[in-house]
Amino acid sequence: MPSSTHRARLHRVRVYVALSRCKSLEGLVLASPINEDGIINDSRVSDYISRQQQAAEESIERLPDLKEEYYRTQLLDMFNFADIYNAQQNAEPRIAGTLSVVSAHDAVS
Questions:
Q1: 93: how many CB neighbours lie within 10 A of its CB?
Q2: Chain-centroid distance, C-alpha 51
Q3: What's the confidence (pLDDT) of residue 109?
Q4: Which tens digit of pLDDT belongs to each residue from 93-103?
Q5: Cβ–Cβ < 8 Å for 34, 15
Q6: Could you give the CA distance from residue 88 to residue 86 in angstroms, rounded to a whole number?
């Protein structure tokens, strides 16, 4: 007669085989609960899942700031005032020169 350890191991193998053949969980009905000791878990998988969950939570926390930064960048790209500023800087000396010529002409007249 098989030992209880052997039966438990056999049970885990059967559960693994049955679940590994499932293509989805839709319609899956368990005849009995699967005990925690019936599941063999790799700590590397658990660690990976924990890191991914933490990264997702951090991303969600940063989302408002990232959205604001994105909108600011979009606005600056759409409304680039550098060309207008440069044109104004180039025009000011010309305008000043023209005004001085007009002022000198008015003074002579």
A1: 9
A2: 15
A3: 61
A4: 888 777 676 66
A5: yes
A6: 5
Residues of the chain above pLDDT 70, percent: 87
* DSSP structure class, residue 60: H
**In 10 A of CB 33, how many CB atoms?**
7
DSSP string, 5-53: HHHHHHHHHHHHHHHHT-S-STT---SSPPPGGG----HHHHHHHHHHH
| Separation between Cα atoms, residue 38 and residue 9, nearest integer Å | 8
Total residue length of the chain: 109
* Three-state secondary-structure class, residue 84: helix
With a cut of 80, say whether residue 73 has pLDDT above it.
yes
